[in-house]
Write a structure and sequence with these properties.
This protein has helices at residues 21-35, 74-85, 113-126, and strands spanning 11-13, 44-52, 57-61, 91-100, 131-135, 141-145. By secondary structure, it is an alpha+beta fold. The protein is globular, with a radius of gyration of 16 Å.
Length: 163
């Protein structure tokens, strides 16, 4: 048996004004997207905004459905919309924020496993990391450079790609 340690590097900011202007704007856009989320069942509203290499910001929010598996997370709504509407344009950064009607959310909210895997696919496709910003409704902001920091052991099989 061999053991190994996996480490994640996270930058923590206490104030949005400590971030560069483009990241401040991205978090504000994510909060605006969050306000338009469709979450009548969970009352948990998530917004995401993506900064593309061409300067376009693509927003997304969670979309729930009475048939629960049919809903989709904000991160995948945004990333798939970016891929569909701006094919071939590199994703530079994504900001994620959330709030609940039932409790105060004052800590960063991380993407779920399915969203992490989807972001990884785009990182691998574009061969460059995506910076991830995470915040609750209020509180600290986390910045991570590359989805592999959040998903160090991931599924990827190049043999699935037909060439």
């Amino acid at each position: 048996m061999r053991k190994f340690i996996i480490e994640t590097e996270i930058e923590r900011f206490e104030n949005i004004h400590d971030l560069p202007e483009d990241e401040q704007e991205l978090l504000v856009e994510a909060k605006m997207a969050m306000n338009d989320a469709y979450a009548p069942y969970s009352q948990f509203y998530v917004g995401a905004s993506i900064l593309l290499a061409n300067g376009i910001i693509q927003k997304g929010n969670n979309q729930e459905n009475a048939a629960y598996p049919s809903g989709l997370c904000a991160e995948r709504v945004a990333i798939f919309a970016a891929g569909a509407n701006n094919p071939g344009i590199e994703i530079r950064k994504i900001a994620i924020t959330a709030q609940s009607k039932d409790f105060a959310l004052d800590h960063p909210v991380a993407p779920c496993g399915a969203c992490r895997q989807s972001m990884l696919e785009y990182e691998m496709k574009q061969k460059s990391p995506i910076t991830i910003l995470m915040q609750g409704r209020t509180g600290d902001i986390f910045r991570i450079h590359g989805i592999r920091q959040l998903l160090p052991i991931y599924f990827h099989e190049e043999g699935l790609m037909h060439k």
